[in-house]
Amino acid sequence: MTDRLRSVLTHLNSIASPRDKLLQKNPDDVVITLAIRTPLCKYKSGALKDTTLDGITFRMLEAVRAKLDLDPAAVDDICLGNVRDGKAAYYCRAAALAAGFPNTVAAHSSSRFCSSGLTATAHIANEVSSGLIDVGIAIGAEMLSEGNDRLDRPFVDEILSNPEAADCMLPMGITSENVAEQFNVSREEQDRYAVESYRRAEAAQRAGWFDDELVPITVKKDGKDITITQDEIRYGTTYEKVAKLKPSFQENGRSTPGNSSQITDGAAAVVLMKRSKALELGQPILAKYVGAAIAGLPPRIMGIGPTLAIPKLLSRYGLDLHKDIDIVEINEAFASMAVYCRDTLKLDWNKMNPRGGAIALGHPFGMTGVRQIVCGLSEARRTKQKVLLTSMCLGTGMGMAGLFVSEQ
């Protein structure tokens, strides 16, 4: 490159907008070369009700290996994002070996409540970026049909004596009620939001929009082999039906089974490597991983976390939420927090969860962070849009956000 050309390129870069800079491609970019997920199935009654965490992790990794178009030995590390099971690292390592990855492929787990899948993605991306590994897989999985995730004992007295620390024990439904009461999110607003989530998910499934992100898996249900190919979505949900439901968490509350995230089982995975490595290995580049941000807040109103994490992330890149972001996936843990985040961030609702969210699709805690990436990138392909932002609130009072650029 001549000095003059280098000077011209430097000048052009200096006057490029933040979005233009975001869309630039460099050899050291961390990119996603595969993004897939299992169908989402209802808790205790759905197709995955008899499947365990090690079972779904095995099937997810088996599907990744089958679609990878790459020697499995090229993978250096796998991270499983999971909330409820302290044995997740065991399951990830054993499932990888059983799924056909050689014993040279390392494995571990990550747990940060509802961002565990996004945290796993960030872990693998950071390993790739730092040069610790060349190729990695991030999985998010949760089998809520297996049991309760609440603490099995109270905190010690020294912790309980601090009111804010004690709030970390609050059931998530109570934090939803706190958000609704403190920020005046009405029951009607929540119910109408929920109905739209159901409508979008139903429309997306009928139109086949989920098809390119799903991998069919075969599992046992009630002792028989079944193959699952579609999400278990409730059709025909109306405002009148949702408005009749009783509060779930407190008398005269505003959060109900109809406007809270469905309790659901499932898993999702993404493969990450540097752009230079993807080109060397002949891998398709679906998207660029840009970065992530985490923020803390009072545990009693944990649901508003995205309103802190999103501005924190976008400020790093000089991006404007309204002008520069094309698709926003905010986890619908509860309609109270979804409505609050939408309105506080002044989001265009057409950009937010265009295929519906966790109220309609479900919220397997550890899966959600990866599911949002997989679903958001599929929507970006369909609509030929570029910049995807994902975010979620986290138990004990946190928010996390991730930023991606679709290249398909």
TrEMBL record:
Cofactor(s) recorded in Swiss-Prot or TrEMBL: K(+)
Q: Which PROSITE patterns match?
A: THIOLASE_2
Keyword list (alphabetical) reads: Acyltransferase, Transferase
Molecular function per GO: acetyl-CoA C-acyltransferase activity
Gene3D superfamilies on file:
3.40.47.10
SUPFAM superfamilies named among the record's database cross-references: Thiolase-like (SSF53901)
Q: Where is the Thiolase C-terminal domain?
A: 285-404
Any one cellular-component term (Gene Ontology): peroxisome
Signal peptide extent: none
The catalytic activity, as recorded, is: an acyl-CoA + acetyl-CoA = a 3-oxoacyl-CoA + CoA
Q: Which GO terms describe its biological process?
A: fatty acid beta-oxidation; phenylacetate catabolic process
- The answer on whether this UniProt entry bears the keyword Acyltransferase reads yes
- Specify the pathway: Lipid metabolism; fatty acid metabolism
Does the entry feature the keyword Transferase, yes or no?
yes
All residue ranges annotated as the Thiolase N-terminal domain in the record: 30-276
**Which residues constitute the catalytic centre?**
C114 (acyl-thioester intermediate), H363 (proton acceptor), C393 (proton acceptor)
Q: Which CDD domains match?
A: thiolase
Family affiliation:
Belongs to the thiolase-like superfamily. Thiolase family.
- What PANTHER family does the annotation carry? 3-KETOACYL-COA THIOLASE, PEROXISOMAL (PTHR43853), ACETYL-COA C-ACETYLTRANSFERASE (PTHR43853:SF10)
* Protein name in UniProt: 3-ketoacyl-CoA thiolase
Q: Which organism is it from?
A: Zasmidium cellare ATCC 36951
